[in-house]
Amino acid sequence: MQPSLHPINDQLPSPKGVALAVLALSRRDDVTLGEIALAIQTDPALSSRLIKLANSATQISRPVVSVQEAVARKGIKSVCQLALGFSLVDQYRDGGCAAFDYPRYWSHSLLMALSMQALAARMRVGEPSELFLCGLLAQIGQLALATLYPKQYSDVLTAYQANPAQSLTAHECAHLDTDHIELGSAMLADWGIPGVFTQPMALYEAPDHSINIEDARTNSLILMLRLAHWLADLALCNADQRPQLTRACLTQAAKLDIPAEDVAYLIDDVIAEWHDWGTLLQIHTEPLPAFAELAQESETTAKNVSSLRIVVADSNEFTRRKTMALLAEDGHHAVYAASDGHSAMALVLEVLPQVIIAHCNLKQVDGLALCQTLRQTGEGHGIYILIMDDHHNVEHSIQAYEGGADGYVSSTLNAKILHTRLVAAQRMAQMKQVCDKDRAQIRQLAAELELANRKIATALPTS
Question: For residues 428, 433, 439 and 440, what is the CA-based torsion angle, rounded to 10 degrees?
């Protein structure tokens, strides 16, 4: 159920100036294209953006050269909604929420918009300019929370950065009794965005297992929004996060039946458009290598981490399978499952894993006890042990780390968090290999030295 916006409507992000005038005109039954075009022409920036969008999204060879033609081609309703989106970009470039990165928010939103526009031309489930707006406003609830509750939302974002294993929406609900998805959906409905678009926008951040949609168009839009979001994350992330996000983009594109050989062309074109639009809208964009290079780098990285042997010990079949599915997405790991502590211990002795992911509520021997037992053995010191819990609990996390765990995560962890943990595990495994090699060399040198001493002692004359 969507929250009522009436008590807070005046404080929410909303269009002003020409965009507000255009929206008011659009509510008249007798409004003409000429009146809408005349209002838009009073804002040169808005005029140029609409003309550019009409040209970039059209299949007609003759370019649009006037605002009135752009309005005629896109339609009054579509133009009004786009004016709303561009108005928000201009008005909310900064604000009072200290932890909210306003420039990154708009850069991310712009890239999502252009990705959705490009995908619209391929998937044909919506008009390109409509899907451009969907991408631009997909995260509008975050901007709204930063605007409504600048101090509180700054605290929420700080808490999320400290504990990213718990979802952003969980942090928002814990502090604000709402989240950016719920608030954003209510705002979009209030602005007249059709439900055929607002429903996918409200669902695309949820995991697959929690979504049961039979409508093919809605499912396609959810997958498109996810791909757009992953691509925006990829363009703005640190270099060490690129391999994982590149694989995520390729996986998502495959779900949309986009051939791997087409993905690079699609993404490179979108990134070029992103830089072009960034200049027009005065939004910062980041340089990004060609996607083919990123894919090659991702493949190399996957090969480097594919040798990990991982034991997943979890008595809950659902979360155990979910963790194993995430591991399958991350690389070609050798994954072994255990449903209780005794079988987990037997597996550890048999396969000598580099990583153990153990649930704290594991039956027979719980995850913490398993960790403590392993740390008392020689081999157990070199294993990366991750304790998983259904809910983040400060006391449990302290016990986990004091018991020798290398990490403590929520069972709702996502692919990005898991990959980050596995990178750390890979480093530990590599360090162990180096140490084992050094020990072997030391033992060999000691044996050679002992042999040389014996030869010297044998060769010395007796007195």
Answer: 170
